[in-house]
Amino acid sequence: MPTALISGITGQDGSYLAEFLLDKGYRVIGIVRRSSTTPYERIAHLIDRVELVSADLLDQTSLTDAVGLYQPDEVYNLAAQSFVQTSWSQPVLTGEFTALGVTRMLEAVKKAAPKARFYQASSSEMFGKVQESPQRETTPFYPRSPYGVAKVYAHWITVNYRESFGLYAVSGILFNHESPRRGLEFVTRKVTDGAVRIKLGLARELRLGNLEARRDWGYAGDYVDAMWRMLQQDTPDDYVIGTGKTWSVRQLCDTAFRAVGLDYRDYVVQDERFFRPAEVDLLVADPAKARRQLGWEPQVGFEELIDTMVRADMDRHAPLGRK
Ligand code: NDP
Ligand code: GDR
Predict the structure, then answer these.
(1) CA gap 232, 5 in Å, rounded
(2) How far is the CA of 97 from the centre of ligand 1 (A)?
(3) Do 264 and 274 reside in the same domain of the chain?
(4) Which ligand 1 atom minimizes the distance to the CA of 220?
(5) Does residue 176 line the site of ligand 2, with CB under 6 A?
(6) Measured at the alpha carbon of residue 209, what is the angle toward residues 208 and 212, in degrees to the nearest 5?
(7) Is 267 in the same domain as 159?
(8) Which ligand has the minimum distance to the alpha carbon of residue 81?
(9) Which of 30, 134, 221, 300: CA 20 to 30 A from 71?
(10) Pairing mode, if any, of strands 268-270 and 206-208?
(11) What is the CATH number of the domain that holds 254?
(12) Where residue 39 falls among pLDDT bands split at 50, 70, 90?
């Protein structure tokens, strides 16, 4: 039975990856950071099937000990400060978690389990002010936020440990992926949750930022499969993962509000507070290499994804509202 160690297991992707690996027969160990509460909402249904170990991206000893104790075959580094907007108000902390935290994880692997295969959760935010469209593995980076800058560092330190120390380390450059487990601050979930709350009489309006920003949105369940595939190759390499299609935030609003029988133009208000100091206007993936070498294809399209999220938010809120 292979062993996988996942940092960020309590996050959206960590929960889907844990499910995916358990189904494949893995022993799954999740890194959790110490907290006065237990933020295990997303893995509550798995809690008897996974093992949890306390460690923190800020603390080298805890990471090295966790890797040393469990001797994983595969390490998935998904933990990060992952919200782009927060990276402007907490730029140093974002760098500590999202950039230097990766070096700490790589050091832990190098010292305690150098044969383990290592996955780094890289991001399309590294492309930022895009230098070509669609974006592929060779597209130059031009990050537009402290988060994006931290992810560029994380990408290159992963490549560097592969080339310097012979680690099996890969960087998966993933475009936005969403699900009913997406955090409420990210725009897809904010919109599906907002549309449902308005429909049920629990809110009157939804305040958003830039409606013209475009993203390549896929389903998180499909993307964790790509992460696993990257670690099953003969040689480590980096891959872009996305759908190749792009939608605006305005189209997202239209789709989600239509799903509850409303017109978004009656409820969505643009609010300066949600605009960003620098924006990424158009991200769209060229996932040809992943298709060719990993045999990976996204299974869930945008409209189905948003529909599923709306239905899940409806189930969650329905007991509180009026139909
Ligand atoms: P989430 O924000 O849902 O999850 C982040 C996870 O990181 C949580 O489990 C969180 O723990 C953990 N974490 C944060 N700080 C620390 C720390 N100091 N020590 C230990 N654990 C910590 O993110 P996603 O699941 O959406 O994303 C997973 C990864 O993929 C992230 O690195 C993100 O940047 C990257 N990514 C995500 C994309 C997406 O569209 N979802 C696209 C491209 C990249 P806690 O529960 O305690 O807060
Ligand atoms: P992103 O996701 O920054 O792409 O990062 P987010 O959903 O936060 O924003 C997408 C786009 O929507 C616009 N937008 C708003 N965004 C939020 N959050 N709230 C609003 O009210 C709002 N109004 C408009 C934003 O300006 C932006 O253009 C996500 C994260 O998961 C990262 O960790 C990951 O690396 C990237 O995706 C790929």
Answers:
(1) 15
(2) 10
(3) yes
(4) 41
(5) yes
(6) 110
(7) no
(8) 1
(9) 221
(10) parallel
(11) 3.90.25.10
(12) confident
